[in-house]
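so my prof wants the structure for this chain in the tokens format not the other one, which i didnt know existed until like an hour ago. anyway here's the sequence
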Amino acid sequence: MDRQIKKKKWTTKRILTIGAIVAFLVFLVYLFFFRDKQSRLYVNKDQLSIATVIEDKFQEFIPVDGIVFPKNTVYIDAVQGGIVEAVYVEDGAILIKGDPILKLMNANMELRTMEQETRMLDAINNLQNTKIHLEQSKFIREKEIAELTYLLQQAEIDYERKKQLIESQVISRKEWEDAERNFAGLKRQLELSRELQKLDSVFSYSQIRQINESIYRMGNNLELLRKTIESLNIKAPAAGKLSSFSAEIGEIKQASEHLGQIDMMDGYKLKARIDERYISRVFVGQEAEFDFNKKTYKLKINKIYTDVVSGTFEVDLLFDGGYPAVIKRGQTVQLRVIFSSASDAIIVKRGGFFQETGGNWIYVVDPSGSYAEKREIRIGRQNTRYYEVKGGLDPGEKVIVSSYKSFGSKDKLIFRN
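here's what i got, hopefully its the right format
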């Protein structure tokens, strides 16, 4: 009798098949739910610049180039044109006020000036003669009044005497009447002379005042003419160092032509051009500084020129304290124009990453050091060395600060061993 053989429920083939199906399902679950979906890029770590986020003092400033100028400058211009007749000094000479610099010759102008001077002197002489004549007339009138006063006194005495004699009938009536008429006539002449004296006085005062004013104006004109001639002799207007000066004998200099300048030896100032974006944040008295020979020098903005040229505006800065002893006119130094005082902040070193991210994100290195992940951050103020981090990073974290140009905004950078 045959024995029935039971078929095995869990054969090797079936177990392997089920195992394969389960493994495939697990793989699918991993793919859809557990697999790291971040885009990644493999990079060489030694080709990256990695910096540590720190908490330290931060000060906002911008770098600008400052050019050294004398604190005070006096310009020398030709008042009158002419031919250079003599040159007394060279460029760079140290001068005191009044030292001769050069002499110009202008024969036509000198001749015209002499003719004008002669005419003015003649006019002044005529006015002086008129003034003398008025003064003489005044004394003549006074002399006339004095003589009439004397004659009137004599006539009065004679009249009073003959009045007594006519009462005594000692003299004739005709003699008394003659004395009376003489007395009355002289009295009237004296009154008229005094009235004329008053009129002459008013007229003479007005005339003399006008004459004096005319003489004064002509005197000023003469002085101006003489200064015009003297302006051909160019002299140092102040004490200091002569610069930007160039002249050769026989060279023609035009009127108002710039001949040079005197740099006064009372200090220096710096001129700097600042981007127009900062025009609303720059003010008189604002601090700046620069390093020179291992020492920091302080300055303050003294003047702001609000005219914007090629996207920049100009400022003058004066030293707040001493200035370098070896600094020279025309020298360029890099200034730091300060916008805020030093304060505690979380900061990260400046780098090329900012050009690609705009400061909106950065690659943060994992503590294991094997990879770096993309993280959103907020950048605040900045200076030439650091960015202020307003959020997204903590002190001690390491970040990649070199350029991200070749990374293509990948989510994760894997470092090759």
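also thought this was worth mentioning. DSSP finds four helices and 24 strands in the chain.
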